[in-house]
């Protein structure tokens, strides 16, 4: 049976694992290696029809996706080749090509009967961890996050691949994104990392994220982020207050309605913040709406909420006295 050889722009090579005891590595003159850029794995992986002779290699197709090509390899090679795939993935990791490693993992995970746990146990974690760090040093935070999500499908724990130095690199890039127009992309990535059990609060200052969301007048985005963190109610108050200082009462009410959906139990700190913001924006009518909302839910406001309500409505002595009497009940 003929050996299949797939040549990469680095030291990585793939051979037919029917003959995995005979590995063929394509060689090139040293001068070529130094000057030829590392091509994309997508462009170098050939199609696999077996009728090609050894003297007539399979053509390279730049239009077909790597996923299609690699899936063909997986179906063609028997199940006993997981060691081969793990070695191949490790070589790609050594070259820093984490997206190609992720594609191998993702494709194997989609194959019924593939022992992905065995594959994961044989991949060189040290090389993969170094590749993650290398990509982060190049500013490729988005590539890293999506790679971590994809390789988890074969049981590779993302947290095991991100050491302290990588966390510092992630923190630096997320903080830069949080303070720019890229805040939405940052939150998209943080949602993925939260699903991978990363500690989101350690990656970026929550107040910086909220400030950026307020600056772009996007309460929904701010609420999405707040839901990623413990003590969500504290951050929700910050969101409400931030939009209140801006005088954006529409966004304040959007955040308030979201709070009622998100929180399991009433939070007096949020109600007090809402009423204070109504006073800040000069909308005493909305403060009464908040109070009536509490009464409809058979919730007894605490003294701090009532004091805020009276302060906001201090111009209306009749209403203030009515609130004061309700406090005595």
TrEMBL record:
Q: Where is this region: Disordered?
A: 17-61
**Transmembrane stretches, start-end:** none
**Where are PPR repeat segments found?**
267-301
> Can you say what this protein is called?
Pentatricopeptide repeat-containing protein At5g02830, chloroplastic-like
Residue ranges, compositional bias (Polar residues)? 50-61
Do the record's keywords include Repeat? yes
Arranged from A to Z, the UniProt key words for this protein are: Repeat
Biased composition of type Low complexity is found at 37-49
Lineage, opening ranks: Eukaryota, Viridiplantae, Streptophyta, Embryophyta, Tracheophyta
Species whose genome carries this gene: Camelina sativa
The record's InterPro entries line, in alphabetical order, gives: PPR_rpt, TPR-like_helical_dom_sf
Gene3D superfamilies listed in its UniProt record:
Tetratricopeptide repeat domain (1.25.40.10)
């Amino acid at each position: 049976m003929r050996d299949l050889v797939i040549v990469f722009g680095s030291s990585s090579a793939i051979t037919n694992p029917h003959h995995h005891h005979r590995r063929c590595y394509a060689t090139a003159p040293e001068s070529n290696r130094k000057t030829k850029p590392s091509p994309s794995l997508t462009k170098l992986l050939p199609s696999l029809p077996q009728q090609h002779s050894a003297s007539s290699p399979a053509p390279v197709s730049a239009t077909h996706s790597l996923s299609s090509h690699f899936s063909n390899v997986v179906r063609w090679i028997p199940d006993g080749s997981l060691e081969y795939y793990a070695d191949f993935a490790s070589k790609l990791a050594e070259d820093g090509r984490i997206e190609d490693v992720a594609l191998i993992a993702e494709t194997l995970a989609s194959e019924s009967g593939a022992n992905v746990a065995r594959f994961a146990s044989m991949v060189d974690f040290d090389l993969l961890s170094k590749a993650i760090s290398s990509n982060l040093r190049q500013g490729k935070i988005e590539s890293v996050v999506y790679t971590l999500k994809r390789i988890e499908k074969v049981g590779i724990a993302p947290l095991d691949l991100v050491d302290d130095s990588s966390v510092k690199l992630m923190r630096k890039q997320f903080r830069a994104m949080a303070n720019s127009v890229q805040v939405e992309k940052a939150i998209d990535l943080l949602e993925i990392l939260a699903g991978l059990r990363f500690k989101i609060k350690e990656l970026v200052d929550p107040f910086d994220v909220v400030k950026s969301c307020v600056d772009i007048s996007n309460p929904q985005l701010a609420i999405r982020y707040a839901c990623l963190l413990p003590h969500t109610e504290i951050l929700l108050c910050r969101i409400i207050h931030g939009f209140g200082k801006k005088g954006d009462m529409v966004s304040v009410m959007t955040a308030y309605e979201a709070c009622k959906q998100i929180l399991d139990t009433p939070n007096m700190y949020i109600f007090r913040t809402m009423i204070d913001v109504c006073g800040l924006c000069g909308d005493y009518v909305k403060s009464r709406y908040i109070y009536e909302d509490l009464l409809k839910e058979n919730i007894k406001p605490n003294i701090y909420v009532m004091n805020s309500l009276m302060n906001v409505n201090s111009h209306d002595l009749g209403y203030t006295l009515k609130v004061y009497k309700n406090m005595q009940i």
